Amino acid sequence: MKRLMSGNAALGEAAILSGCTCYFGYPITPQNELTEHMAKRMAEEGFVFIQSESEIAAINMVLGASVAGARAMTSSSGPGMSLKQEGISYLAADELPAVIVDMVRGGPGMGNISPAQSDYLQATRGGGHGDYKTIVLAPGSVQELTEVVPLAFDLADKYRNPVIILGDGMLGQMMEPVDFTNIKPPSVYEKDYILTGADGRPPRTIYSLLFDTKLQEEHNWKLFRKFQRMEQNEVRYETYLVDDADMVVVAYGIGARIVKGAIKRLRQENLKVGMIRPITLWPFPVKAIKDLAKTINDFFVFEMSAGQMVEDVKLALEGRGHVHFYGRPGGVIPTPVELFRIISRHCYQAQSRKRKKA
Amino acid sequence: MKGTITIDRERCKGCALCIEFCPKKAIFISDDLNLKGYYVAAFDETGGCTGCATCAVMCPDVAIEVEKH
Amino acid sequence: MKKAYTRPTLLKPAHFHYCPGCGHGIINRLIMEVIEEMDLRARAICVAPAGCGMLLYNYFEIDTLESAHGRGAAVATGIKRVRPKNLVFSYQGDGDLAAIGTAEGFHAANRGENITVIFVNNGVYGMTGGQMAPTTLIDQVTTTTPGGRNSLIAGHPVRICEVFAQLDGTVYLERVAVNKPTAVLKTRKAIAKAFQYQIEGRGFSLVEILSPCPTNWKMDARQACRWIDEVMSTVFPLGVVKEAIC
């Protein structure tokens, strides 16, 4: 049976169904519905909920809960994610699982509370210090938001690494029918690294200070190999009408939904435009885009930002093809009609370029 | 009457703190809706206002000016 | 006829965005009255918080700036160290000062920074929709304490004035309220006193102001003002907590 829920609340419910027993959060718009949902539901389930004193405290509480063996989650928006970066670096360095949700809003600075996609680089490059990566999942609907939650917890446990769910204010606050029946009970992961008290076993320690540079280097390469395995095994994306496409749009999250509306209009005008929608922003679907570039020359990147994912598209293409970019930063949500106009103009320009060459 | 007040009806949000603390009960909530949709406070000229300015001291919207003879 | 009360000239013409009966409106007005009276417009610099008070730069006819949530006391420190002759004050809510900004506030106080903190205590997070604040009372219902604040999970209300009084760097700490006319006039006096002490270079001052939040307390303005008298001020006693002026 489907329930009508806000993305934020649905995410919270999915987390509980995925075995999350600890939630730590601090109020920030546009994700408060998640914190408030957890305040109510975690108490009902007898799980841990703390409204922490800050986002920094919350990420460190997550670290503690993770060290103790629990599935722990925190959530925030841009300004709070900036605060969490040190904690995320520590989680990666200590090889601890955690799920961190970012409901992106307009920025930088105080910004506004409108949906945006301007935290892409912060999430995928790792705004924290040091060589590390986090898997970044970018759902595109409330239903998909619930589906990436158990995936996030599983990947976090599987790789012993923090995983970021990158949503936005619209995804978090819009209400759609949600079906939780597909969420399976969580798998059990052997956790031989957690601290439980050295009762009948040698003591363990969790640390990331490695004075000996040879050891630090080896630790970095060990993490690097883990990230390579993620790149090999965990890429997720969706394609839409690319088989006969002359131009492929690259967009994610709520941006991809707007693009789908534009593509429907473009197809009515016989403009053969398709879309590739990355679901993992890291690892980025590099191979999928390279494969498309074998037959398709024109890539159109749309983001609700001043241009962040476009860098990854260009890196993936390694100089092949043309990359056009269209962005609306600051929390502006364009309409499908606007995108249809912009993309169709590029289609016609691409067509006339081809005619000139011929 | 020793005092008069003027209430800026577009600033007023009908919170009624002026009414609560007016010692003469010379202010009331009218059935006059302002542009924001609030029922605004209004001055009762027969209320015996002394110009004490308690209403202005309490008004969170600085909507009240007070004159005294 | 003479004017018994007019709008302070230092309030910009913009209408306040605050809810009906919100204490921020009264406090914003009092600060501008005091700055006007003490002729400090040319010297005053205010650091705004994240929270309902964040838009005070639309109302204050003085130099103002926005700080990241909770960092006002640190930002004010930076300003005052560069411009010691200016009147530098931060305006912070209970989340801003007592939750995320505790370290910055505590250490500005501990260093005895010659700034003033105007601390608006309304026992909830207003702007984000009514979540618990560090100053929320036990059993008080908020959106993150739906069953009432339980001290075993969520701790006890924090009395910032008393905590800061322990620090040798603080010189003037008073708790006041804006829930009735006599209280409002006392608040005005406390703000003026704090500013005066700052001008005299005495050290760190803080005025904690119990303020009604009718929307998130789910009361009308009059009930909210009564609640401050009947309930809130029993947990947060009004009066001078510290005045160590030699």
Question: Any overview of this molecule?
Answer:
The complex is a heterotrimer of chains A (358), B (69) and C (246). Chain A has helices spanning 7-17, 32-45, 55-67, 78-94, 120-125, 142-159, 169-173, 213-233, 253-268, 286-292, 309-317, 336-357; strands at residues 3-6, 20-25, 48-51, 71-76, 98-104, 135-137, 162-168, 175-178, 237-240, 247-250, 273-278, 280-282, 298-303, 322-327. With 358 residues, chain A is α/β, with parallel strands linked by helices. The longest helix of chain A has 22 residues, at 336-357. Chain B is an alpha+beta fold and 69 residues long. Chain B has two helices and four strands; from the N terminus they run βαββαβ. Chain B has helices at 17-21, 54-58, and strands at residues 3-7, 27-33, 39-43, 64-68. The mean pLDDT of chain B is 96. Chain C is an alpha/beta fold and 246 residues long. Chain C has a single domain, classed as 3-Layer(aba) Sandwich (Rossmann fold), CATH 3.40.50. Helices cover 37% and strands 20% of the residues of chain C. Chain C has helices at residues 23-37, 72-82, 94-100, 102-110, 151-154, 160-165, 181-199, 214-217, 221-235, and strands spanning 2-5, 44-48, 63-66, 87-93, 116-121, 124-125, 131-132, 170-177, 204-210, 239-243. In chain C, helix 2 (72-82) runs parallel beside helix 4 (102-110). The longest helix of chain C is centred in the last third of the chain and has 19 residues, at 181-199. Chain C starts with a strand and ends with a strand. The relative contact order of chain C is 0.15. The model of chain C has no long low-confidence stretch (mean pLDDT 96). Chains in contact: A-C, B-C. Chain A binds chain C through residues 26-29, 32, 35-36, 39-40, 43, 49-51, 53-55, 79, 109-110, and chain C through 50, 54, 66, 68-70, 95, 99-100, 102, 125, 127-129, 131-132, 134, 143-147, 153-154. Strand 4 of chain B pairs antiparallel with strand 1 (2-5) of chain C, so a sheet runs across the interface.
